[in-house]
Amino acid sequence: MKKILIANRGEIARRIIRTCDRLGIETVAIHSEADGELPYVSEATEAAAIGPNPVAQSYLQADKIIEEALKRNAEAIHPGYGLLSENADFARKVTEAGLIFIGPKPEVIDTMGDKLGSRHTMKQAGVPVVPGTAEGVSDIDAAVSEAKAIGYPLMLKASAGGGGIGMVLCENEQALTQQFDSVKNRAKAYFGNDIVYLEKFIANARHIEVQIFGDESGNIVHLYERNCSVQRRNQKVIEESPSPDLPESARTKLCEAAVQAARAVGYTNAGTVEFIVDENNDFYFLEMNTRLQVEHPITEEVTGVDLVEWQINVAKGETLPGQDTIHTNGHSIEYRIYAEDPKTFFPSPGTLSVLKWGTGARIETGYEEGNKVTPFYDPMIAKVILTGASREKVLEKSRKFFDETAIEGVKTNLPLFDQFIESKPFIEGNYATAVLAQWLTQQKEEKTV
Amino acid sequence: MKQLTASMAGTVLNIAVSEGDSVSAGQTVMTLESMKMEIPVEAEFGGNVEKVDVEVGSFVNEGDTLVTLGE
């Protein structure tokens, strides 16, 4: 493979370019008008302006992107994460154009992209799923009647949803009645599909996911787990590997279930199986992400594997190394730095007048000092990855790192990390997905007292 | 005349008020979309809508007038 087009932007485009450079593969970057100044564009071997700022007119222009790849003699397209990465039609079109799509087969993306479909597939494969409706619930009467069987509290979810959009926690029948139409409408508006279903709400749950990989010869391996329970608005903020407070026996079962899930769909390339894990370490399949995950670097840090390199190798038809060659060492934590108000979480676009990083971290960022964080895309400025021999060592390094780091020009969630990493639940490591919201509420209360 | 301005850059997703409406402080008058997030714009003060200065789909910069309110 000599040339790859990267159908993405910012930090992930840069991350992919880095591996390609090391492997001697040329890269083609695509960019919108607003992104022309970003570092990834000049770091790629070639760059193509793809359209105006809104993603629908630029990064989601599947045909235009494929055309560009063909024109520039690229042999493969790496979709990164988000944007077109989990779009089965795009994967299909890429293949039909005679190019290699660096990811799983379109049929697998289709199956796993539909939450109800993937629940069904997993259940058949013997992977535990969260108790809930097998089919979509068509109207509020059906929802209320199904809800009685499942019990409250429950989650109302869009089958086509993702990224934290299209799901609502309903504490009781009144909440379900109030939310039903709005979730259905939002699902229609965002995902073009208004099928919704109900799932039991698992209290004090942790979100733990397993990195898996499959090759064309049918080999499936896992690269252990990541705990992604520190979230806001159902989106991840801090991830760590290995997961604290998870017994070895539970870890083994979880990783085995992930491999079983991947095998059930004949998975190829990089994927992530997300589980929710309850207080008794019982776990349930949540969803599968059929792409490279944002938080993949922590897995790279503890396993020593370059996941992008593996993606390219598998796409070329190479065989994966055996499971017995994959080990983890030490501990790694990723902090996602967002351009947002640390209290309200509202976005804060602007120019990064100061961008000074502390020492000792792997920084994955799409920006340099002086760049603009525009309102058109995701508010993530950077991923900060800190690794050490133990979790305690990583926390020590984190404190030092945040002390030395300064970002000016936009509001960021840096102040939140500074304090949150000193909180009891985070230090103890036995936290659940509600931890950040609970901690913020507690902070507010302490201030008013 | 008082003006409600955008606290951040973004695209107007929907508008909840029209000319002649009376709004009270704290009421949501429109929703902006910025960085993949919907941000409700609340009236900082009450009044009668004299003019809606933007349309659905307009791109606004921080400080741009969204709605003009009269007494």
UniProtKB/TrEMBL annotation, chain B:
Superkingdom of the organism of origin: Bacteria
Sequence ranges assigned to domain Lipoyl-binding in this UniProt record: 1-70
Record keywords: Biotin
Name of the protein in question: Acetyl-CoA carboxylase biotin carboxyl carrier protein
Organism the protein comes from: Planococcus citreus
